[in-house]
Each structure stands twice: as structure tokens, then as C-alpha cells.
Amino acid sequence: MSGNGYKSIDPAAQEMLRIAEEEGYETVFSRAEEIKPCPIGRDGACCKHCFMGPCRLVGKTTRGVCGATLDTVVARNLARAIAAGAASHGDHGRDMALTLLAAAEGEAPDYQVKDLQKLLEVADILGVPYRDRDEKEIARDVALKILAEFGQQKGELTYLKRAPLRRQEIWRKLGIAPRGIDREVVDLLHRTHIGNDQDAEHLLLGAMRCALADGWGGSMFSTDITDILFGSPAPLKTRANLGALKEDEVNIIVHGHEPLFSEMMVLAVNDPELIEYARSKGAKGINLAGICCTANETLMRQGIPTVGNFLSQELALLTGAVDLMAVDVQCIMQALVPLAEQFHTKFVTTSPKVRIKGAIHVEFDESRALEIAKELVKMAIDNFPNRGKVRIPKHVSEVVAGFSHEYITYALGGYYRASFRPLNDAVIQGRIRGVAGVVGCNNPRSTQDYAHEYIVRELIKNDVLVVQTGCGAIASAKYGMMLPEMMEEVGPGLREICEATGLPPVLHMGSCVDNTRILTVASQMATEGGLGEDIADLPAVGIAPEWMSEKALAIGTYFAASGVYVLFGVGSPIKASEEVQRIMSEGWERTVGGKLEFVEDPEEIVRRALEHIDKKRAALGLEEYNPAKFGKSGDRLMLQFLKALEEGKEVSLYSAKSLLGA
Questions:
Q1: What is the pTM of this model?
Q2: Which of 217, 228, 225, 232 has its CA nearest to residue 404?
């Protein structure tokens, strides 16, 4: 492991892991140590697609029982994983659309349109009439239009037109413009059945089309509908890490990915009657916190703190302070049930898609959403007196989150001149060297948060603006890297931009499905002018340093198919086939302008990322990056001077002039 041999660089996690080791509790970290990954399957060389196998293509074995080559097997395994990831995000988007429809038709009374402007923008893109119409009628037609695109059999997804024109032409020329979201998932699963598609390059073209149905379909629909129902995010300050739990309050954790349930929990914990009920049980109040992308959804809209990312879910229970954990879908460990049983914690599944043996199941129903949320809050309150020993780490950091692409344009140009022009100009001038999306999961096969933290710090030091989603965003939040005042390690050019706009150097843009916000930013930068005509022209990279899920593979593939150079850490599921590696790097770069590579070493990831950014700058004819051009700005020094005054320090005229460079 990297990161000085620790299982995590998070001091709160380290504290809880010591307790787990001393008291004999099993965690994902200890299981990862005990269970060694199969090297054949890990490299993609094991085929289990029929019952003549499994066939392990190693040593002298170059073909499976059916004759499938190593290249076919590796490509087929990757394609199936991408199909599963796209299906997960697509189903998330479908549930959001069904809820929007139910709200519009009065069948889900606890949900309303919170962002009318976003509804009208989406209606315009989809071709839904909206002038002189009731918002519920518009919402109904938007939902129906989106739902139709899941089962659409011919044509193209409507949202493809949000991409630059040149990008659309590339997709059409290659025949990978997605027709319908469900159609592409089924098509790819069919191709990977025994006896079907057995050409690695053709399989991977199908995988790109399926992934694009996620990025420019299911996920993008989900992001937009979430904004419509709960409001488009804008910056707010909250807290991150296990120290956000409270010893004297009822602690409820929501965990998973769909905000339909968690947003109702936000309303329920603020109910005055329930707060008073909690006090009657000896608690001072009710504290709601999140884990994984459910945390990101409520954090960026409601300021609900996050207690951690994927690898922190068991550690939260080990504190003994969690009275109830309620989960919906995705990234939920089955190990939580037996662990909760060793404490007083109530563990509740809520989705009709997810049941875990031994868990309490309270099925969520959008038609009585708030009522169910209140039932669960009451369950947590009733459980508060049953607490045993509590040990909450003190470690907690502040974070500024909520950077939708709409807010970024507002921050750069104001209400009347909202635009990406200032961002493009900063890249052209060299103040910002480039842009990087650092996203994705945690993986116990690498030190928790080490690669995320190292890569982000190195990039901002080199004047690269970083945007983040998912567990990667939570990683940076835990280490105070998402604050406007966090400028000590920021390169001089990027620092000037951040001080002028008030933006932090690392922007929290939401949950996993909100990677589509990054796609939107990239598209708008390309169409703004000055940085080429396509996403592939931008000095930009995508990085998933600690990935583990099939969703991550789908995300990485739709970014590569959109023209982005994507780097994955930890290890490679295509290592067994040099041909598949070549197709996804050199081949994809030639055909779609983007590529996907697996690189384990974080230092090498940074090196390749900066090299690619500089190569794109040169191709655009931009001036070579030179950090020496930009010194410490007056704004920065003024902040130091004001801080000194606030702290009551005696500041003489001489020292003031020195601070201000006069």
C-alpha cells in the first residue's frame, strides 16, 4: 500500500481502526488483508460467461473451451462491468423521473418543483412546450419525455445535442450515438453472451455507446431532475468526517445514492415535534449525517454533514454513537448488518430493490414519503437511550460545497453576464494550466484517501483547477481542501483566480451521477471559444485514483468517449490483454479523441496528467505554462493584513505597507 503503510491517511479512520483491532471487530480493511484477490480474475483473464468454464487463460492456455481468445475475454469482462454500471445509474435516473411524474400528478405530495428555472431549461432542451403553461403540466411532460428515452429503440438520446457539434459528429460517424438507455444496456449484455461478439475492438465500441447512454442519458437526467425537485446547488459551508457525530444528540446516518429518501429525512429531523420528542428521551436534538453519495446530495443542498466516504461506513458504527443507519441503493456493505448487531444501532433498508438479510426493512413509498421518514426518525429517537460506550473521534473539517455548473458561471460573470469566458481566458493566459476532474471511489487495496489527497494537492500546486464528485470529493473535504482560504499550497496563477472570484481551488460538484455536471462544464468551455471546438481540445483530464465499482468504469468510459484522457489508479482489469490496452489508449485516442489508461502509481498519474495538459495547451497554440509569471497577489496580502487586524495584532504603518507590498 502507498501512504506510509497505513490503511487510511484519515486520522479519524486510524483511530477507529485501532479500536477495531484491539476489540476484535471485523472491517473491510481486515477482510482485504485476509482475502487475497485472484490474480487471474483481477487482470481480466477469467471467463465465467457459460458453464463450460470458468476458463482461466494463463500460461499455455490461450483460448477458452469455446475458443474465445484472451483479447475477447478481457474486452467482454470489461464490457459487462460497464453495462452494470450504466444500468445502476440509469435506474437511478428512471426513479427520479418517476418521482417527478408522481409529483406532477399529485401522487407524491411531499415533492414539489423547487427550481422552476431549471425545469424550463430542461423543457427547452427536450422540446417540451412551456410558455403560458402550469408548472405541473410542464413537469409531467418533461418526466414523460425522459421516461420515453429509457425505452427508445431508434434515433438518438436528446441530451446528445448538449455536446459540442464536432463531438456529436464523431459519435455518429462511429455509430456509437446511444439510441435508448435500456436498449444500450441490453445490447451490450447480449453481445457479451457466449457465441456473440468476439472482436475486442467492436466489443469496446459497444461499451462506449452503452457508457454514453449513462453519461449523456441516465446520469444527466438524474442530475437535472434532482435539481428541479430539490433545488440547484449553491455554495454553503458544512462539516466532514466522523467528528460530525454528536454524543448528546440522536445520530441518524443516511447512506446510499438516491436523494428521494434522504431529502425527506432532512425535513423529518427538523420537525419541531420530533425534536421535542428527542429531548424527552434525554437527547439535546437530532443530528443527521450522510455517507457516500447520499451524503453528497444532502451536503451540497442542505448543508448536512458527511461522516465519510465508502470505506468509512463501518467505522461510523464502531463509534457506538449511531442510533439508526438508513440505506437505499449502491455501495452498501452487507457487513454492516452483523456489525450493527454488536452495537445498539438500528440498521434499516428502504429501497424495494435492496434487502439485506438481518436488516430491518421499511419500504420507502414516495406517496407518503415524509410520513415514512418521520417513522424512521422516531425509531432512532426511541433507540437513543439504548446506547452503550460512545467514542467519537474529534477530527472534523469544514467544507464549502455546492458548485453546480450554473453557479460557476454566476461566480465568474455575475447574474447578467454569467459565462465561462473568464475561465477560458484564465486558461488561455496560463493562470490556470488546465482542469482536472478527480472523482470516484475508495478501495481497501490502496490506502484510503492517499491517492486522492496526493493527486489533488499536486495538481492545485501546479495551477490545475480541480473539480470533484463522489467519494473523491468527500476525501478532499475531510482534509480541508475545499475552502476558499486554503491557498498555502496553491500555484500563484490559480491562487489569483480563486482570490478574485472567491472560489476554492477544489470544487465540490456533487455525487457520482453529477459527473455529468463536469461534462456540461467541459462542453460549455469548448463552445465558449478560444480553447478549440471540442471537449478533446481542452487541456483537461479525468482521474479515478481509488476506483472499485462498475459504475466507475462506466463513468470513465463515457468521459473517454466524450474526448477526455482518463486515468484510473489501484490496478487494471484489462492487464491480461495488451491488445485491449492498446485499443483503449492509442485506438480510442485516434477514433474518439479520448483514452482510458490504468496506472497504479499516483506520482505517475500526476506526471501523465500534467504532460497531457501541456500537450493540449501546445496544440491550441497557447503560451507555455510558466508559474514564474504570477506572483503573490495583492488580494492575498490584503487578506493577511485583515486577518492580523482581526486577531488584534498591532499593525504599524510600516508593517501594513510591507504586507501590502507598498
A1: 0.94
A2: 232
